[in-house]
Design goal:
Layout lengths: L1 H16 L1 H17 L3 H22 L2 H31 L7
Amino acid sequence: VARGAAALCGLTGCFLGGPFLAILAAIGGAYSATHNEGPVGDASRAVGEVALAARDKAKEHQVCEKTGTAAKSVAKGLKESFRRKSTSSTASQNPKAEVL
């Protein structure tokens, strides 16, 4: 639960204030989840449980694998697009040049 709290607090800190605030928020979230018995600790543990539940759902629906496959497909399409653009610009500069 502390790792989940650290991850979600760190992510929130990154969005709100950049990497330095992300580190501070992650440390604070983990510390309060493990050492604070009051309402702040309860809130940190609840945030951690939400983060762990989200991780489990992402694994269940294979989000990482699907995202990786989509990113590779986009990268391949961009590579082919740039390759076509560079060969067409070479041909327009030198009309006698062969197109591969």
